[in-house]
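Is this the right way to post structure tokens for a design question? Let me know if I should format differently. Anyway, here goes:
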């Protein structure tokens, strides 16, 4: 029996309805509707400036929408209570350089109402920073800071994860580990939205959401998006959905895809 038949509305992990954010003349998010299911990894793909970070900030309730609404697990954002269910790894790290690795983690854990030492040790282990627990964060390399940032995002065991370009500056071996962990979290029911401006990790996602100029221009599995565009190259598929050919030139009017 579907939710509609039983009379109860389905609760999506993440929902956007007519979501808009304007900065002066810039329509950073220009009318986005989304419904994401639990336990899946969604790739939010688009070039720099396409509105990915702004969309994530609206969904997490960190930015106020100009119009429309965002819901996390059925709760309209912003909501202090829903924040406990959300993990957000910002594009620019939000860690405190003068605090140690362990202090950063306990700060984030307490912020979410979790003071559990075992949770801190678990995430430190996960990102392989257990040996650095007492080191000031400012002594960490770029890749280590990304790992700490991920650990801070996961320490309260969130149900919905927003990762804004999480593997930028992360070496290939660690990148594989990050993805192994994302996959494990999704298998345990966590919903993950990963933003990226490059297509090279797209096939690790269950589904892709292409954004351009603040709008969703395509959605589906990598295979579906490739097949629909008649190409085996996702970048070409993205360009085609943008009304451009493989070299970035406008397609003729008849071929442009809305
Ligand atoms: N705080 C802000 N004030 C003014 N313009 C902004 C602000 N944040 C983002 N923008 C603009 O909104 C658009 C989308 O930006 P952003 O969401 O950061 O895109 P992305 O994450 O895809 O690179 C860009 O044109 C950017 O310059
Ligand atoms: Mg961004």
């Amino acid at each position: 029996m579907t939710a509609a038949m039983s009379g109860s509305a389905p609760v999506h992990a993440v929902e956007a309805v007519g979501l808009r954010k304007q900065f002066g003349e810039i329509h950073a998010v220009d009318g986005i509707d989304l419904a994401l299911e639990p336990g899946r990894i969604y790739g939010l793909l688009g070039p720099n400036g396409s509105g990915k970070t702004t969309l994530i900030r609206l969904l997490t309730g960190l930015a106020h929408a100009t119009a429309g609404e965002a819901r996390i697990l059925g709760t309209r954002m912003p909501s202090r209570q829903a924040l406990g269910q959300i993990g957000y790894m910002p594009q620019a790290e939000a860690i405190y350089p003068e605090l140690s690795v362990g202090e950063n983690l306990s700060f984030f854990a307490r912020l979410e109402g979790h003071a559990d030492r075992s949770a801190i040790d678990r995430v430190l282990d996960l990102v392989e920073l257990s040996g650095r627990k007492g080191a000031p964060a400012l002594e960490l390399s770029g890749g280590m800071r990304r790992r700490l940032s991920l650990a801070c995002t996961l320490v309260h065991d969130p149900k919905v994860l927003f990762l804004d370009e999480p593997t930028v500056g992360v070496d290939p071996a660690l990148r594989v580990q990050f993805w192994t962990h994302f996959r494990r979290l999704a298998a345990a029911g966590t919903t993950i939205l990963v933003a990226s401006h490059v297509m090279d990790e797209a096939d690790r996602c269950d589904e892709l959401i292409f954004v351009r100029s603040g709008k969703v221009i395509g959605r589906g599995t990598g295979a579906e998006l490739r097949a629909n565009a008649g190409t085996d190259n996702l970048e070409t598929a993205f360009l085609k959905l943008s009304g451009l050919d493989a070299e970035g030139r406008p397609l003729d009017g008849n071929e442009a895809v809305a």
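Format looks fine. Someone answered above. Worth noting: The radius of gyration is 19 Å. The chain has a mean pLDDT of 91.
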